[in-house]
Amino acid sequence: MRFVDEVKIVVSSGAGGKGASTFRRESLVPMGGPDGGDGGRGGHVVLHADPNLSSLLDLRHRPQWKAGDGVKGGKQQMTGAAGEDLHIHLPVGTLVYDVDSDNLLCDLATPGMERVIAQGGRGGLGNIHFKTSTNRSPRKSTPGGPGVTLPLRFELRVMADVGLLGYPNAGKSTLISVISSARPRVADYPFTTLVPQLGVVDMGVEGSFVVADIPGLIEGAAEGKGLGHQFLRHVSRTRLLLHLLSLGDESEGSPVQRYQVLREELRRYDPELLLRPEIVVLTKADIADEDDIATARQELGTAGVAEVRVISAAARLGVRELVQEMAAKLAKMKIEG
Question: Using CA atoms, how far apart are residues 268 and 266, in angstroms rounded to an integer?
């Protein structure tokens, strides 16, 4: 399925039904008086956070969405039927913005969450409401209220506990395929991951956590270079960042240089991300010698990284310990709130 994480649509709630202007006409009741019923309310536009969805693709080819209009009131004080509500299902983690003002209207961050984003118009009043002691046969009724039209922008940010960050070919896809049931494409060329991949890490009786493989970031990502800052938005939902630095290729600079570039891209996108807890990991240890590993550790330490993990996902070296550390950090963060 194609991954789509931003869509613009226009939604309209339903107009309210008109109130009726009728009079009671029955045998033996020559002066029946007014009996016009109220119009039904217009349909609401309701947004739902659906855990079964992972993309906004279904919305892309339908730019206009409208709820049903309310039905006109009837005689014998019968209220018209309400317009049919419009229900739009969105992936969990979708942000909803007003296109005109760019204001955030709601954040569908919880599975099953619902939000009425556009109220239907109220139903009009029937002439029964306008009967007075001096006007016993009113012909007045009111029209229903208009619906609301809103241009909306939906922005999906994947929900995950841990975000895997790194240059292309840093080993993110291999790691997530080893520690979870996710099966991203793995190959020896840049940008094999074109969309965020989610994997659930099962810790048995200790529970589980979700890891997101964020597509490869490079210098200039905050301005749209490479896969651009379209995927940096997904980092903001993660609680713990895992910086993966490959030992097997220095064509893009040394591990410490790549780490510093990634940190700078995070700062330029959102400085708050620099405060997020992180684990720095040297990957592909199976193809590096001890001197390269020692040098990388020393340079990262000089740059302010207190602890560095060394793994090889392909050879399963250090992976179990890394998973346990991630779980421990997440548990501690949950306790601390």
Answer: 5
The residue whose two tokens read 């409208």 is 66
| Residue corresponding to tokens 């119009």 | 39
CA distance 234 to 102: 19
> Is 238 within 8 Å of 165 (Cβ atoms)?
no
Q: Kind of pairing, strands 149-156 and 6-12?
A: antiparallel
Length of the chain: 337
Please name the residue that has the structure tokens 């931003």: 6
Does residue 248 register a pLDDT over 80?
A: no
Burial class (CB in 10 A: 0-12, 13-18, 19+), 249: middle
24 vs 44: CA distance, rounded Å: 33
- Domains, the chain, with CATH or none: 6-156 (2.70.210.12), 162-336 (3.40.50.300)
Average pLDDT of every residue of the chain: 86
pLDDT tens for residues 281-296? 999 999 888 999 999 9
pLDDT digits (tens, 9 = 90+) for 197-228: 778 888 887 788 888 888 756 554 444 444 44
In this prediction the pTM is 0.72
| Contact between 68 and 56 (Cβ < 8 Å) | no
Burial 37-52 (b: 16+ CB within 10 A, else e): bbbbbbbbbbbbbbee
Q: How many CA atoms lie within 13 A of 278 on its CB side?
A: 24
Helix, strand, coil percentages for the chain (3-state, nearest 5): 25, 25, 50
Q: How far apart are CA 16 and CA 126, in angstroms?
A: 13
Top pLDDT among 112 and 265 is at 112
